[in-house]
Amino acid sequence: MSNVATQVIDHFVSQVGAQAATWLQSCVHCGECAEACHFYEVTKDPRYTPAWKLEPFARAYRARKAPFAGVRRALGLAKEPDEAELNEWQELIYDSCTMCGRCTMVCPMGIDIASLVGLARKSMAANGIGPEDLFAVAEKSREVGSPLGVTPEKMEERIDWLSDEHEVDIPLNKEKAEVLLTISSIETMKYPQSIVAMAQVLNHAGIDWTFSTKGYEATNFGVLSGKADVAKVMIERIVAAAESVGAKTVIIPECGHAYGALRWTGAMMLGRPLPFEVFHITEYLAMLKRDGKLKLKPMDDAITYHDPCQISRRGGATEAAREVLDGFATGFREMSPTGNANWCCGGGGGVAAIQRATPLRLKVFEIKMKQVEDSGADIMVSACANCRQTLDGGKEHYKWDREIGSLVEIVADHLVKA
Ligand code: SF4
Ligand code: SF4
Questions:
Q1: Model pTM greater than 0.85?
Q2: Ligand 1: does its nearest atom lie under 6 Å from the Cβ of 113?
Q3: For 181, which DSSP code?
Q4: What is the pLDDT of residues 124-144, one digit of tens each?
Q5: Which residue has the least CA distance to atom 2 on ligand 1?
Q6: Residue 408, C-beta contacts closer than 8 angstroms, at least 6 positions apart
Q7: Any idea where the domains of the chain sit in the sequence?
């Protein structure tokens, strides 16, 4: 086995704690997870069966650390993967897993494939095995503060421009504020209306908030690529910004994985409790509505909601969007399946940043078109700019006639002006 392969496996095995060990040993090969995975569903290719994606790593674990590993090795029953096999497996660990967690819901043994894929990515990334384009955007985040090159200076220019263009107050670098708002670079570069919408809603509700050039980027390509050091830097920047303005609340914008990265794993990466509460913008909108701070005009369009996996299924904030839409979007209807069971957009988990995965990602969009068409909706909104970008890519490719939008933008469009 090559030196690189040994290092990947050493790294992987060293990360396996009690929980991961249980998962790695409990697969009963029932195959239930296959049809839960969108990549299997659209291709029927058995390689995309979730359990199979981890096969070399489970095998290496059995050879190195599982009970009776020594006996297995002595009998030549456990062959560890070599570098060529690990390179071949890149497609299964990166390109065809959005870490959506849908397979876990159906697994009778409760195996969290997405988390195990995350561990495998960390070990591969630490040894330079993985998609170069995904690694490049992660490195760009470390170097300039954002995966799409939004430096603090560009952020400032963009905010100035949006503020003038849309005549909205967008506070930046206030000395003190109760709430720190963050952005996703996809919004900054592709969907800036979403930034305007967040500002309009927070101003409408009278919130004391600010952006900060010390820490503004919520997306965390360190988490997606498996580059643990980049993941930590991105969390530290947000924490430093929040501490510098004394914010007790940090709002994550319309981005799925950014929510999980900060809310559910941020403290672990930081090595101490987060000194603020974290809310996804949909949760924050729901709170404002509950507190009577969101006055909305009714909207009667035929609209449906695409649950981003990392906000609903993996994040636990499934009801927030429904609470916002309830009573306001009178033409709202659910897709089937929906909520925690919703199908992934196909571009999460960093897959949208992997160029060679484009054909597979577009194939997954066929599921989404059918879901929306069956619901009778004309508009599908989401609360994740990465989902939105993936869905827009599918819409363009198939020349699909439905509209794709953002939850916070439709809320901002229907605010009752004071
Ligand atoms: S986490 Fe999602 S994409 Fe990954 S194997 Fe499971 S169902 Fe498929
Ligand atoms: S559903 Fe669970 S136990 Fe069955 S094959 Fe998939 S991972 Fe293994």
A1: yes
A2: yes
A3: E
A4: 999 999 999 999 999 999 999
A5: 100
A6: 194, 197, 198, 201, 253, 254, 281, 282, 285, 383
A7: 3-129, 133-288, 293-413
